[in-house]
Write a structure and sequence with these properties.
The protein is about 40% helix and about 20% strand. By secondary structure, it is α/β, with parallel strands linked by helices. The chain has 2 domains: about 1-150, 2-Layer Sandwich (Nucleotidyltransferase, domain 5); about 200-395, ATPase, nucleotide binding domain (Nucleotidyltransferase, domain 5). A hairpin with a 7-residue loop joins strand 3 (about 30-35) and strand 4. The chain starts with a strand and ends with a helix.
Length: about 400
């Protein structure tokens, strides 16, 4: 079965046609896809690739909204392939499922309405996710549409991990709890890492203890035991946890009140700054790890401090999760920074010797990982926890969950 996966962002739309593998720990086969960027502006542009990621189209398009962007994507697929004739489902990334959705679900009018209502928990994400689904249902109305939620992998977090120590009214009436995000990435990467542990070390997959570090512009850590999320760094929203490109991660909850008193900032202004002007950007003016690394290596102290704070926060979560898991079998780096920054991987692992974590500098500096790969960067097969680089496959995971859902009843 091939699946068209649609990921609608605030001003972008990513799309891909994929064939999930029969092996749940293997990456899906990408037949082609692309991105429409700058939706809603005069500079909207479509980039389309074929099998193997070979670029076949890069052109300006008229995309005033997500419906127009999806039409442009469909035109690109019709012109360059792969054909949509064999697509049996459309899978959609939805950021927040609240307490309503603990797994993938076939989209109907009721589901779509609820996704839109959950914008109260994800105001920057769910509205555009819903817009993408509406546009796709109009364009591809003859196949089922499946919503796959970033929060679903964490839906059954242990009560002790998901519960905030806040008034009962907030928890029961307003859904205040830890939800967690990046669930499709954590699900795939932890499964691939567990399969590697079973194959290379004979680890029982039902007991495997893996910490996944999804380090991109957004970043989160997840503790996984036997394939289940037992704790994760993001919380009610994606702002909590690690230092990110422009998000602060954890701060004192009294910060908003303090800044109201001393600087006259209201809650909305503080929230906006914590999401868009903090993190690496707030520390040194750049939110891209590549730029921050170049500046640090050139001797700029604020950039060096930014990387040190970034790595320290990651190490602190790894240490906490090793305790929560009662040990650690593997540490898996993924996403843009985790997969590509040897400096960040080294900085994180250099402070984890107390857990037995070691990295071979030569291996770490020369990682070439493609779809479906699991690349070890530790010094030996029996030298403490494995340190792995695992390219994430979020689009493939969405396709796999869509197929699993639609075939579960044998239909």
């Amino acid at each position: 079965m091939s699946v068209l996966v649609v990921n609608a962002g605030s001003s972008s739309l990513k799309y891909a046609v994929l064939e999930p593998s029969g092996d749940p720990a293997a990456a899906a086969r990408r037949l082609g896809g692309g991105t429409v960027e700058r939706i809603g502006s005069d500079g909207a542009r479509l980039r389309h690739d074929g099998p193997g990621g070979r670029a076949v189209d890069d052109e300006a398009v008229d995309a005033p909204d997500h419906a127009a962007a999806l039409r442009a994507a469909a035109d690109a697929l019709a012109a360059h392939g792969p054909s949509l004739d064999d697509v049996t489902a459309v899978g959609h990334r939805v950021v927040h499922g609240g307490e309503d959705f603990s797994g993938p679900v076939v989209v109907d009018d009721r589901v779509l309405a609820r996704i839109a209502e959950l914008a109260v928990l994800a105001p920057l994400h769910n509205p555009v996710n819903a817009a993408g689904i509406r546009a796709a249902r109009e364009r591809f109305g003859d196949v089922p549409h499946v919503a796959v939620f970033d929060t679903a992998f964490h839906a059954d977090l242990p009560e002790v991990a998901r519960t905030y120590a806040v008034p009962r009214e907030w928890r029961e009436e307003h859904g205040v709890r830890r939800y967690g995000f990046h669930g499709t990435s954590h699900a795939y990467v932890s499964r691939a890492a567990t399969a590697w542990l079973q194959r290379e070390r004979g680890t029982d997959p039902g007991a495997a203890r893996v910490v996944v570090l999804h380090l991109g512009n957004g970043a989160s850590a997840c503790a996984v035991r036997g394939g289940r999320s037992v704790d994760t760094s993001m919380g009610l929203t994606p702002l909590a946890g690690l230092v990110m490109g422009s998000r602060s991660g954890d701060v004192d909850p009294a910060l908003a009140g303090h800044l109201r008193r001393v600087a006259g900032l209201d809650a909305e202004a503080v929230e906006e700054a914590l999401n868009g002007a903090s993190g690496l950007r707030g520390l040194c003016g750049d939110g891209d790890v590549r730029d921050v690394t170049r500046r640090a290596e050139a001797g700029e102290q604020d950039a060096a401090l930014a990387l040190a704070v970034y790595a320290y926060r990651v190490r602190a979560y790894v240490g906490a999760y090793a305790v929560a898991l009662e040990g650690l079998d593997a540490l898996a780096f993924t996403a843009g920074v985790g997969e590509n920054s040897a400096r960040v991987r080294a900085d994180v692992c250099d402070g984890l010797a107390v857990l037995g974590v070691q990295v071979d500098p030569a291996r770490n500096a020369d990682v070439a990982a493609g779809p479906g790969d699991v690349v070890p960067v530790h010094p030996g097969a029996a030298a403490g926890p494995a340190v792995l680089v695992v390219p994430t496959d979020e689009e493939g995971e969405i396709a796999r969950q869509a197929v699993d859902l639609l075939t579960a009843g044998g239909d």
